[in-house]
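Exercise 7b. Backbone tokens:
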């Protein structure tokens, strides 16, 4: 029988994993162990979907400043990822393709090797930086990879700019910017807490709001002028109805997040006086703009 290959992008915020021969097997799983304020249990990886109260979550993360340092947490998450409940992986019958950060120190690389072979017993494995795999994203016989390219990989803690020549990264030219999704979420927390509600303890919720509402503007001056206009002319304004965990005990799925556009559709349930509404206006495009102009916040 042919050995299956499991491809695992082991990110600092989430693990994206699936089998190379089955495009339907892909899963995105939080790379963390989470403790809820209302739930007296810990949630490993995708178990977070079972959480009933997302307010004030406490995260234990395997990565620190972009590097894998807490292997106790990572082993628990990997155990969950490889389990029958998630990817149904039998390591002795599977080859593993895993990503690692750029400039990963040799001592951390050695721990990767020991975990993969000694702890899990994979049949074979290969480590690669994530940008190198991006070269093959849309490759086919008619569309071979380019001889030269630049990959911009914006992750949780860092953004790397990696030039490639004939498939190999030019190590001396790789640039790293200490800017990623975590910083955008934290900055959005501060902006929202200053302007509207105190959300400094709501990292999970603010990250969801960032992913649901924010976008990269094509013309910032035009969008600024639209965001200054009153409704209904303001097409940028969205009302994000914050979940009320005290009365709504059912879990909030991603598809259930209650986002109202500026001109609220009549088929939506009308807002009640008890609803806490977060108005997302120019925050929707000014937060992602930090990726292109880090000096705006002093980086």
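Sequence design result:
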């Amino acid at each position: 029988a042919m050995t299956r290959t499991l491809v695992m992008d082991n990110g600092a915020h989430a693990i994206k994993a699936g089998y190379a021969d089955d495009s339907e097997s892909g899963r995105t799983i939080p790379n963390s162990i989470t403790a809820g304020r209302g739930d007296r249990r810990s949630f490993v990886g995708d178990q977070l979907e079972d959480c009933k109260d997302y307010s004030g979550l406490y995260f234990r993360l395997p990565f620190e400043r972009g590097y894998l340092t807490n292997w106790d947490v990572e082993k628990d998450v990997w155990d969950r990822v490889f389990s029958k409940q998630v990817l149904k992986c039998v390591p002795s019958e599977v080859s593993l393709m895993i990503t690692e950060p750029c400039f990963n120190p040799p001592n951390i690389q050695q721990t990767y090797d020991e975990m993969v072979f000694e702890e899990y017993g994979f049949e074979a494995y290969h480590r690669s930086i994530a940008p190198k795999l991006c070269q093959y994203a849309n490759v086919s016989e008619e569309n071979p990879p380019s001889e030269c390219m630049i990959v911009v990989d914006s992750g949780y803690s860092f953004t790397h700019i990696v030039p490639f020549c004939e498939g190999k990264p030019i190590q001396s030219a790789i640039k790293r910017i200490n800017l990623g999704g975590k910083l955008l979420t934290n900055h959005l927390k501060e902006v929202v807490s200053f302007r509207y509600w105190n959300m400094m303890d709501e990292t999970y919720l603010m990250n969801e709001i960032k992913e649901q509402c924010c976008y990269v503007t094509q013309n910032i001056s035009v969008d600024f002028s639209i965001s200054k206009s009153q409704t209904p002319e303001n097409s940028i304004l969205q009302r994000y109805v914050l979940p009320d965990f005290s009365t709504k005990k059912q879990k909030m799925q991603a598809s259930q997040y209650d986002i109202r556009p500026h001109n609220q559709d009549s088929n939506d349930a009308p807002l009640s006086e008890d609803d806490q509404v977060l108005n997302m206006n120019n925050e929707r495009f000014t937060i992602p703009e930090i990726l292109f102009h880090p000096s705006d916040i002093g980086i």
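Instructor comment: The two ends are 53 Å apart (CA to CA). The chain has two domains: 4-135, 210-297.
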